[in-house]
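User: New here, please read:
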Amino acid sequence: MMKKAMHLQDMEVKNATKWKETIKNQRMRISTEFSKLHHFLAEEELLILQRLSKEDEDTKKKLSVNMLRLNQTITSLKKLISEVGEKSLASTLELLQNPKDVLTRSDTQDLNYSPEVLRVKTPCQIPLMKEMLKRFQVAVSLAEDTAHPKLVFSQEGRCVKNAASASTWPVFSTAWNYFAGWRNSQTSTQFAEKFQYLPCVLGKNVFTSGKHYWEVETRDGLEIAMGVCREDVMGITDRSRMSPNVGIWAIYCSSGGYRPLTSLSGIPTKQEPALQRVGVYLDHGAGNVSFYSVVDGVHLHTFSFSLVSRVRPFFWLSPLASLVILPVTDKK
């Protein structure tokens, strides 16, 4: 028995030595592979920045050509105006000599031009970003007791639809909603505050720290907005005031593109393919919320906020629009 015990002890010593060597090798493998990844990401960053620099140079050249062309046109027109001024001071006989010359030269000035709306074509698309965001995905559901009365819900509070045009529907629309699984927002006696003026709803989740990610899907291409907000925004009465100024950090999406909701309205940025799934990533500690296209991982916009201890998911829907908050998928 002693001989067997000492033999087993010797095996365990060898196992410990072998295990130590295995861990050392695995640690080296992990460090080496991460070094490769860092190198790959650095190269990818350099390539993207080079594409952006080329786009910048090409656009500057185009703008320079446009400016030169406009300067030449303005110089020519100034010269013609000066000639007309001089002729107007001359005698009637001189004024009537060859008037077509000035008019012909005036007609040849090409002013069929309108400034181009400049948009950056090089996307902010970071490899592996989609996979990294999934690590922070959380289950978000809608707080029906905060919803505008025209919003109806299904799929256990993950799907919402704006029935604002229900008055134009057939008389059986209420029955159809019932059989389709939709139900009107419920009034809670414990939490009476809700959106009375705008078709909005908050998420049940209250975030006070940490990193959180969720995905929102819309299939009909109608106008919706999503993001985060403070809890005291439910009295807002004007859609145009939905902005960081009142404590709402969100983006507007439709089939026509997307734009951040700010106090300054802008032209939506066209997204190809059209945005159907948007990822919302909240980093409460860093004080920012970012938006991504779920399909290709392209970064859409980032808001920064400060001195806000509690934020909740925020949603706005145009008439007949609907959205679904996607369930949590495998975080691996």
Notes: The longest strand covers residues 211-217. Residues 1-113 form one domain.
